[in-house]
Amino acid sequence: MTVVDVDRPDRRARRANGKSDPVDAYAAATAVLSGRAGGTPKTRDGVVEAIRSLRVVRRSAVKSRTQTINQIRTLIVTAPSEVREKLRGLPTSELIRTLARSRPTGQTSDPIHTVRVALRRLARRHEYLTEEISDANAELGPLVAQAAPELVAFLGVGTETAGQLLITAGDNPERLRSEASFAHLCAAATVPASSGRTNRHRLDRGGDRAANNALHMIALVRMRYDDRTKDYVARRTAQGMSKKDILRCLKRFIAREVYKHLTSTHITPKPLLQTA
Fold first, then answer.
1. pLDDT tens-digit map of 203-240
2. Which pLDDT tens digit goes with each residue over 142-199?
3. Model's pTM, two decimal places?
4. What share of residues in the chain are helix, strand, coil (percent, to 5)?
5. Helices (H) and strands (E) in the chain, counts
6. Which of 197, 167, 169, 202 is nearest to 50 (CA)?
7. Do 170 and 92 touch, CB atoms closer than 8 A?
8. DSSP string of 83-119?
9. Whole-number Cα distances in Å, 87 to 71, 109, 114, 124
10. Assign residue 89 a region: left if phi > 0, alpha if psi is -120 to 50, beta otherwise?
11. Which residue, 168, 130, 164, is CA-closest to 144?
């Protein structure tokens, strides 16, 4: 059976027609029959799906580790002076190592002892999350290189950014009709914002924000380390363009390069029978 990917109706239509399973099904059928919806869904049966699963775990581990180190810093600030003076000013790596190896002794009712116990447990949690992130990185690296080896070789493209762009395109990037559609998907397409005598374009606020963030990081790296990009930024700045407009143009160029390599070197997944 042919499966078509249908976007949710806009808010105006939902306010007018209400929200229920029959109403949504009728709206989806109407969108397909009228030709407004004709997208091909992701197959989710190849190496990109494996990358997506690992990145879910890694992203949550990174978020939890950041929360943990923030909690450690907060406890140190509010800890008694006996604890605070010994730990203040230590780098993060040395601080975690010192707290994890500590052996606090005393009564649980003593605030100093309790703070030391809490800091030790948080430090051990930080070490565990760091090990989990390292394991995920070791698994993600070969998978991303297998899916798009030439993409990883690009200046400014790492395992994280390449993995996100692969997830955005899916296991079947041929479903994207052109590099313009991929740019729209990544929220890197030009959006006119002219009015009267003002003729300009603005940054797109829609699309896949994670993919847009990946393009943004690549653009920032190239602006700092790529001589060709530096010359382009200097030329555009001399023409009076703002930094936001320059970043918009750079992200559009990068989206074009990424699309070419995603569609030319991507591993074609095995066929999967889908049912509606």
1. 777 788 999 999 999 999 999 999 999 999 999 999 99
2. 999 998 888 888 889 999 999 999 999 888 888 888 888 899 889 888 788 888 888 8
3. 0.79
4. 65, 5, 30
5. 12, 2
6. 167
7. no
8. HHHHHTT--HHHHHHHHHT----S-TT-HHHHHHHHH
9. 14, 22, 16, 16
10. left
11. 164
CA distances from 157 to 144, 145, 260, 272 (A): 11, 11, 15, 30
The DSSP secondary structure of 224-267, one letter per residue, reads HH-HHHHHHHHHHHHTT--HHHHHHHHHHHHHHHHHHHHHHHPP
Question: DSSP secondary structure string, 11-37?
Answer: HHHHHHH---HHHHHHHHHHHHHHTS-
Signed CA dihedral, 141, 144, 146, 152: sign only: negative
Burial 110-140, CB ≥16 within 10 A → b, else e: eeeeebbbbbbebbebbbebbebbeebeeeb
Q: What letter represents residue 246's amino acid?
A: I
**CA distances to 19, 59, 140, 160 from 149, in Å:** 45, 22, 13, 14
- Structural contact between residues 227 and 263, judged by C-beta atoms closer than 8 angstroms: no
Q: Which pair of tokens denotes residue 252?
A: 């559009």
Say whether 201 sits in a helix, a strand or coil.
strand
Cα first-last separation, the chain: 7
